[in-house]
Design brief:
3 domains, 22 helices, Transferase(Phosphotransferase), domain 1, 39% helix
Length: 487
């Protein structure tokens, strides 16, 4: 009986309690299917409804879907029952950064490494229009390799939360880490307020105690408002200068993240090569194993498609493949916004060789290098690193009939928003000459030439129509519907 109680929706085996708050408990859990360890936040639905916090829960879900980064806790899925909401997230084996600092100050190199990772995560959040608003060591977790992971986006704000003056007005956060302009309640820039909190965290890492502290809360607010703090004598001179610029009580003159990155103390010991390797290993590794060997052999053979018929011949789709690709069976909208999807498909009446040539032409125009793999698979890669690694797009061609092809393009590495921009502004317009229809869009009228094709062609048309339909009824498990309709 106890075993049954510990199994959550036949997917996770709940384990020990990791932490507990007013409205939620966090348990260690293990995926029954993969054996992966995760943390599951169990929220009492009745309690959050009673105190009006359901909007905060929704905002946390939306925000965590937007900010997927190596230094941010990843939200895998959300499940719900009549009484509980479950967040399935990364398990941070190393616990809170706070526990590390509570034992005393950190060595300068260790503090700098954590600060690098914090700035990377916060900069990424800001690029997505997300402001954390409660940055503190208790909300910074460590994985088994002691890499920092930002967590707890319950008080975060999105860019659209700004009022007409372009500022945020909700006073929130932890007093010792909150910026002066937030305390003043006259509106504040979320990004600048987060930078202030990062400065307080840096001070704590280097000193082992808070820069602003007083048993009288109003006196502490006064010190924060005037940035009244002293740096210990063991602080390096350039670290002191950086802290003065971050903990500037005037948000208009406070240093930006771009200038923090250029600071001499910040850059000292910054191993950009290691940072790049870490990012790429998380984002691009699955397809890179034989990419270099494949690209090397193709570079020697030139870029012409002649003499490559074996490579050009794409994978054939059978009836089961076609059904699985049908839009009527696509449940991804229940878990992510359509604008954030990492893949898209289109159909074409052009031969595979023409599709490949067009993809190469558009990639060259967008300054993406092309690596070819077997059976109609191309890998398009950016030339320089973006916010979340090098952008990498896989384009795979499938043969539906000898004269009709499906092309699937999906992000395999790098930043999702950068991928969406390249897709919208570059790939879609550039490929319009060969596209018959994009999945999810109404198919165009057939051309006169296609209408005159043999009767067999008319029968084949039933296949692409099935691929692109959206009106098909779907039987969705109750659990998935509950995920989509969180209160």
């Amino acid at each position: 009986m106890d075993d049954k109680v510990s199994i959550l929706m036949e997917r996770y085996e709940l384990g020990r309690l990791l932490g507990q708050g007013t409205f939620a408990k966090v348990h260690y859990a293990r995926s029954i299917k993969t054996g992966q360890g995760v943390a599951i936040k169990v929220i009492d639905k009745e309690k959050v409804l009673r105190v009006g916090l359901i909007d905060q829960i929704k905002r946390e879900i939306s925000t965590m879907r937007l900010v997927r980064h190596p230094n941010i806790i990843h939200l895998y899925e959300v499940m719900a029952t009549k009484t509980k909401i479950y967040f399935v997230m990364d398990f941070a084996k190393g616990g809170e950064l706070f526990n590390k600092v509570s034992n005393g100050r950190l060595k300068e190199d260790v503090a700098r490494r954590f600060f690098h990772q914090l700035i990377n995560a916060v900069d990424f959040c800001h690029s997505r229009g997300v402001y954390h608003r409660d940055l503190k060591p208790e909300n910074l977790l460590l994985d088994e390799n002691e890499n920092l992971k930002v967590s707890d986006f319950g008080l975060s704000a999105l860019a659209e939360s700004k009022r007409q003056d372009g500022l945020l007005h909700t006073t929130c956060g932890t007093p010792a880490y909150v910026a002066p302009e937030v305390i003043n309640r006259k509106g504040y820039d979320g990004a600048k307020a987060d930078i202030w909190s990062c400065g307080v965290i840096l001070y704590v890492l280097l000193a082992g105690y808070l820069p602003f502290h007083d048993s009288n809360l109003m006196e502490m607010y006064r010190k924060i408002g005037k940035a009244e703090f002293k740096s210990p004598n063991w602080f390096p001179p350039d670290a002191r200068r950086l802290l003065v610029r971050i903990l500037d009580p005037n948000p208009h003159t406070r240093i930006s993240i771009a200038k923090i990155r250029g600071n001499s103390w910040f850059r000292r010991g910054l191993n950009s090569k290691q940072s790049k390797t870490d990012t790429e290993s998380k984002e691009v590794a699955p397809l890179d194993a034989d990419a270099d060997a494949a690209s090397g052999s193709r570079e020697n053979s030139g870029t012409s498609t002649e003499g490559k018929q074996d490579w050009v011949r794409p994978t054939n789709l059978n009836a089961f493949d076609i059904i699985s690709l049908s839009a009527g069976f696509d449940l991804s909208n229940l878990f992510e916004e359509p604008s954030l999807k990492k893949e898209t498909r289109f159909t074409s009446w052009q031969p595979a060789s023409v599709v490949i040539s067009k993809l190469e032409e558009v990639a060259e125009r967008l300054r993406l290098k092309v690596k070819k793999k077997e059976k109609g698979l191309l890998k398009l890669e950016g030339l320089k690193e973006g916010r979340n690694g090098i952008l990498s797009i896989d384009a795979e061609i499938f043969e539906v009939t000898p004269s009709f092809h499906l092309v699937e393009m999906k992000k395999s590495g790098g930043d999702t928003m950068e991928y969406r921009k390249v897709l919208k502004d570059g790939l879609r317009p550039g490929l319009q000459d060969i596209v018959w229809a994009w999945q999810g869009e109404q198919k165009p009228q057939q051309s006169e030439q296609q209408l005159q094709q043999p009767e067999q062609q008319d029968q084949e048309e039933l296949v692409p129509q099935q691929l692109l339909q959206q009106d098909q009824e779907e039987l969705v498990p109750q659990q998935l519907l509950q995920q989509d309709h969180l209160p």
